[in-house]
């Protein structure tokens, strides 16, 4: 079971909902997270259970970023709106930087999201299970 987060800017919320509907069966066995409104919209249209953090501008991006910093997030689908300025842009940049630091796959558009979900479906994320197994501080 992997930890997967969904984030979408306002003009991308319908797109992420449709994406998750299309791949709902792939997401079922995993632990799902999202920022506030995005998670609510996905849960209204699917049978998925999602742990919702605060709205992105209110700190939700940072809450997901905290999981990334602890290497506790395995995949992020973050549909960004590149044509609209975001008031919390520094939080977004910090989240993406943390993903780069920790080597967490992150998709910022549907094309990349689809490639990552197809890889997830094939089992190509097994390396993340090893990351969790050998994480420092976890005794067996």
Automatic annotation (TrEMBL):
One of its GO terms (cellular component) is cytosol. It holds the Pfam family MGS. Keywords: Lyase. GO terms for molecular function: methylglyoxal synthase activity. CDD domains: MGS (cd01422). The keyword Membrane does not apply. It is an enzyme of class 4 (lyase). Substrate binds at residues 9, 13, 35-38, 55-56, 88. One of its GO terms (biological process) is methylglyoxal biosynthetic process. Belongs to the methylglyoxal synthase family. This is Methylglyoxal synthase. It comes from Paenibacillus endophyticus. The lineage of its organism: Bacteria, Bacillati, Bacillota, Bacilli, Bacillales. The gene is mgsA.
């Amino acid at each position: 079971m992997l930890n997967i987060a969904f984030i979408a800017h306002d003009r991308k919320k319908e797109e992420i909902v449709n994406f998750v509907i299309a791949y709902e069966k792939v997401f079922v066995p995993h632990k799902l997270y999202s920022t506030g409104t995005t998670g609510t919209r996905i849960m209204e249209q699917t049978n998925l259970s999602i742990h919702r953090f605060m709205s992105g501008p209110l700190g939700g991006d940072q809450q997901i970023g905290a999981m990334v910093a602890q290497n506790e997030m395995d995949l992020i689908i973050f549909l960004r709106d590149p044509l609209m300025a975001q008031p919390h842009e520094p939080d977004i940049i910090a989240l993406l930087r943390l993903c780069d630091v920790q080597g967490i796959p992150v998709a910022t558009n549907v094309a990349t999201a689809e490639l990552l979900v197809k890889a997830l479906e094939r089992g190509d994320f097994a390396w993340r299970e090893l990351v969790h197994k050998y994480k420092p501080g976890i005794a067996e």
